[in-house]
Amino acid sequence: MLAGELAARRRNFDAAVSHLSRAVRLEDALIYTEPADWPFPARANLGAVLLEAGRPEEAEVVFWDDLRQRPENGWSLFGLGQALRAQGKNDQAAAVEQRFEKAWQRADVKLTAARF
């Protein structure tokens, strides 16, 4: 994930997506434990970088995939709303944004992206 974030910071989005896609595969291969061995979902970072790279269709797929694994995850709902808006899917985005508001109603952090 670190290599992916560093590449994204340098705006080398192809390398960033490659590294973060590998992080997703590695995360998926972890054995389930409570608490999780890796508490930061790699898909949130991958989706956010795809949005930065101007690839909202791919970001949408990543965020939907994360929501199948982590239902009503605020980070992924936020990113999904951004991805849908970027594609002009405004009705779907509005519905997702309502879900986000409900999921995030007690949070003390205002999101500007699907990752810190």
Helix fraction?
55-70%
Q: What's the end-to-end separation, in Å? A: 13 Å
CATH architecture type: Alpha Horseshoe
What name goes with the CATH superfamily? Tetratricopeptide repeat domain
How many β-strand stretches?
Answer: 0
Biggest beta-sheet profile:
none
Query: What is the name of the CATH topology?
Result: Serine Threonine Protein Phosphatase 5, Tetratricopeptide repeat
Structural class: mainly alpha
Shape type: globular
Overall tally of domains:
1
Summed up, the helix count is: 6
What ranges have pLDDT less than 50 throughout 5 or more consecutive residues? none
Topology order in helix (H) and strand (E) letters: HHHHHH
Average predicted local confidence, pLDDT: 95
How big is the Rg?
14 Å
Description:
There is one protein chain. The protein has helices at residues 2-9, 13-29, 42-52, 56-69, 74-86, 90-103. Helices cover 66% and strands 0% of the residues. The longest helix is centred in the N-terminal third of the chain and has 17 residues, at 13-29. It is globular and about 35 Å long. It has one domain (2-103): Serine Threonine Protein Phosphatase 5, Tetratricopeptide repeat, CATH 1.25.40.10. The protein is built from 6 helices and no strands. The model has no long low-confidence stretch (mean pLDDT 95). It has 116 residues and is mainly alpha-helical.
